[in-house]
Amino acid sequence: MKIAINKFGEILTSRPEGREAYMVARAYMRPATSDEPIELDFEGVKVLTPSWADEFISGLRSEYGSRVVCLPSSNPSVILSLQMLKQ
Amino acid sequence: MITEQWKKAYQWVTGPSAEMKAEEICASRDVFRARLDRFYADLLRSVKSEAECALTSAMVGEIGNNCFDHNLGQWRDVPGCWFDHGVLDGSMRWIVIADRGQGVLSSLQRVEPTLKTDQEALEVAFSKVVSGRSPEKRGNGLKFVRQVINGHASQGLLFLSGKGKIGFGGGFNKAESLLGRSPNDSATVRGTFALIFGGEK
């Protein structure tokens, strides 16, 4: 299952927005099987912060663990925010 | 002179009390969010680099949202954050974000009670993954800001809270001077004051 992150907006900065996006994804974007990967596609996202990413991705990972995969992005705010989450 | 706009924000955040009417104040996160969207669009027209706009806007988003994340119910008097930006001398982009909240020391002392000074608190805030919003797992935002600044030689950051001061990148001493502060200035910032400067116009 692929989640197009830009459907939540192009400028993604605050924790409350990230948390809300996670809650929506949790409710409406469910994988078809218990082992299907969940791919996060950041194409079209203009600005991402570690705060938004933390709320959204950590939320999904608490439910789906390592099945959550971030697809490569060329946007430096996406790259650096995802690096910060790994620390 | 554009630095008057810096001084206006600095006086707002150092004064014993503050007016609530300044147009630069974002009284709620929604207002800040709307102005951040406009900032991104204005910046993109100016610098024409999506990569630069992305990183600068992300920094502004982290610092501005921090004002609300850590100060809801904790404002000294005026709720919200001061958000202003422009270009100095036709070449140096600048952004000011400030709040009259509890400040970094008060926020971090909840989780790091050994912190005694504003200076210690700022150094921890920009170097360790720690947040006053414990037990929530937070605290990456200012480290992110530091990485962005340090990754761009032409950018700088001056960040003040209480009597503490921290700076990254080139030229923050000059920025402090343009602000009208001396390096050992004893004025107290009643909340936080961030000045980002440099980069492409």
Explain what you see.
The complex is a heterodimer of chains A (87) and B (201). Chain A starts with a strand and ends with a helix. The model of chain A has no long low-confidence stretch (mean pLDDT 95). The longest helix of chain A is centred in the middle third of the chain and has 15 residues. Chain A is globular and about 30 Å long. Chain A has a 3-stranded parallel β-sheet with strand order 1-3-5, with helices on one face. A two-stranded parallel sheet of chain A has the order 2-4. Chain A is an alpha/beta fold. Chain A contains 3 helices and 5 strands. Chain B is α+β, with helices and mostly antiparallel strands and 201 residues long. Chain B is 41% helix and 21% strand. Chain B is built from 7 helices and 6 strands; from the N terminus they run αβααββαααββαβ. A 6-stranded antiparallel β-sheet of chain B has the order 1-2-3-6-4-5, sandwiched between helices. In chain B, a hairpin with a 3-residue loop joins β2 and β3. In chain B, α3 runs antiparallel to α6. Chain B starts with a helix and ends with a strand. The mean pLDDT of chain B is 89. The interface between A and B is medium-sized, with 22 and 27 residues.
